[in-house]
Amino acid sequence: MSLVKLYDTTLRDGTQAEDISFLVEDKIRIAHKLDELGVHYIEGGWPGSNPKDVAFFKDIKKEKLSQAKIAAFGSTRRANITPDKDNNIKTLVAAEPDAITIFGKTWDFHVREALRISLDENLELIFDSLEYLKKHAPEIFYDAEHFFDGYKTNPDYAIKTLKAAEQAKADCIILCDTNGGTLPFELAAIIQEVKKHISTPLGIHTHNDSECAVANSLHAVNLGIVQVQGTINGFGERCGNANLCSIIPALKVKMKKQCVSDEQMRHLRDLSRFVYELANISPNKHQAYVGNSAFAHKGGVHVSAIQRHPETYEHMRPELVGNSTRVLVSDLSGRANILAKAEEFKINLDSKDPVTLEILDNIKEMENRGYQFEGAEASFELLMKKALGTHKNYFHIIGFRVIDERRGDGEKPMAEATIKVRVGGKVEHTAAEGNGPVNALDNAIRKALEKFYPMLKEVKLLDYKVRVLPAGQGTASAIRVLIESGDKHSRWGTVGVSDNVIDASYQALIDSIDYKLHKSEE
Q: How many Cβ atoms are within 10 Å of 42's Cβ, its own excluded?
């Protein structure tokens, strides 16, 4: 089984999609999930373009990844300047990544109209930049931007740009369908021609503007491509990038290519939904392989057939990617997911244990009200502990009040929260101010509890997301709050749902503190 290297660019290309933005903390969490999945390279961003990406490369060095390599992205040097003086090149080196990927122009139209230099000068840009970087990083990749469009208009020059990269000893040359307009039969013919001239290992980077990104990527692998670039859920500029959630199972199950392990691939659906949740976007239920409807069957002949032999209406076993068969008239999914989560949290559950069914029923009821536990693993673990009777009550909130007041026109609103909490036999009644009602409530809760549990001073609220649930009731709609908290050792997510934003925030805040106290005793 031949090996295909997976190169994820969700943290850079994915964030170029409309409505998608990740904080540095989000990017770190996603990087860990990609590492767990078995992705070989994680492109963290363009360190020369913005402070956020500079911070990512600094912070990721403090994290321990099991096998993934971190790649930095940038461009070839500018014209009329040497690589060692080019600020973009210098920031790539300063980021100290495991690999550096730079793109260059392969389409003569872009060389003349965008760079406004001669074709020969562009070849020098490519060679000089790669040759310099080769001395300063363990691995160097070259993204041949607009390669397929460039090849169609001037094949000789497009090949010359690849030869410049090969002469500079790039470790892999990636053929990019940057505009996403190449069709599979065109791509195949061009790759076959390229292989007659280039011996360096080749990669593929496709966009989805003609709905062919996944097909083109798979076709390229079938022709000997050894590195596939893409994003989780196909996030990316315009119509998106090649979707790794579709590419990975197709490579492994259908094409028998080695890319991730069987165990790693079973986390694919979880990763997909995790990234959706941190992007604050509702998952696409009709997404291939990992969507809720990908293996859903409704009524009649289909249901009867799949209950006897699932392969009658399923192209592969959904469990391979962490999904499950669903019969919409009598939902059969869920128990296996609960058992898998329990095992992940080192909680012993039996599939026939009534507690398992109780947890399942509880989760279904909560999900009907708008709860989602992707990105809120801490709330899920607490839910299971409560059902098993292993949950410890460290405190009891007797009640709280939040006041959000604006005292005059043009004045900044003031927020104050009061909370009454019982710990053991003692009652603490505390008030605190904050930058808004949620911050005030958070400050009041901490102020009350830190007297009893000093370790809560370590906890920081890292991220706060609010999503209006599609209830069609305007400002009266239910909302979901997702909070990410962390200390010096780890990060965790909690969730709350209510038609009151303060109440939903309160639920997520309490779970965050509760989780920290439980972990402190382990």
A: 27
| Long-range own/partner contacts, residues 492-500 (CB < 8 A, 24 or more apart) | 492/377, 492/378, 492/516, 493/375, 493/376, 493/377, 493/378, 493/379, 494/376, 494/378, 494/379, 495/371, 495/372, 495/373, 495/375, 495/376, 495/379, 497/366, 497/369, 497/370, 497/371, 497/469
Q: Give CATH for domain 349-392+460-522.
A: 3.30.160.340
Q: Nearest CA to 140 among 216, 189, 83, 223?
A: 83
Q: At 122, list the tokens.
A: 């562009």
* Contact call for residues 62 and 303 (beta carbons, < 8 A): no
Nearest to 24 by CA among 45, 4, 3, 8: 45
Distances (CA, A) of 166 to 3, 128, 195, 200, 389: 22, 12, 12, 6, 63
End-to-end CA distance of the chain: 42
**CB-based burial label for 187 (10 Å; 0-12, 13-18, 19+):** buried
Query: What distance in Å separates the CA atoms of residue 255 and residue 260, rounded to the nearest whole number?
Result: 13
Q: Which residues pair with 400 in a beta bridge?
A: 419
- H helices then E strands: how many in the chain? 18, 16
Domain extent listing, the chain? 5-260, 349-392+460-522, 395-452
Q: What is the CATH number of domain 395-452?
A: 3.30.160.740
pLDDT the model gives residue 331: 40
- Positive or negative CA dihedral for 286, 290, 294, 296? negative
Token pair 């859903």 in the structure block, residue: 296
**Per-residue pLDDT tens for 270-293?**
999 999 989 988 789 899 999 988
Contact 270, 365 (CB under 8 A): no
Rounded to whole angstroms, the Cα distance separating 174 from 105 reads 12
Residues constituting the chain: 522
What pLDDT, on the 0 to 100 scale, is given for residue 13? 96
Q: Tell me phi and psi for residue 310, to 5 degrees.
A: -55, -30
Tell me which architecture the domain covering 5-260 has in CATH.
Alpha-Beta Barrel (3.20)
CB atoms within 10 A of CB 52: 15
Q: What is the pLDDT of residues 331-346, one digit of tens each?
A: 444 565 566 667 766 7
Assess contact for 7 and 228: CB atoms under 8 A. yes
Do domains 5-260 and 349-392+460-522 share one topology? The answer is: no
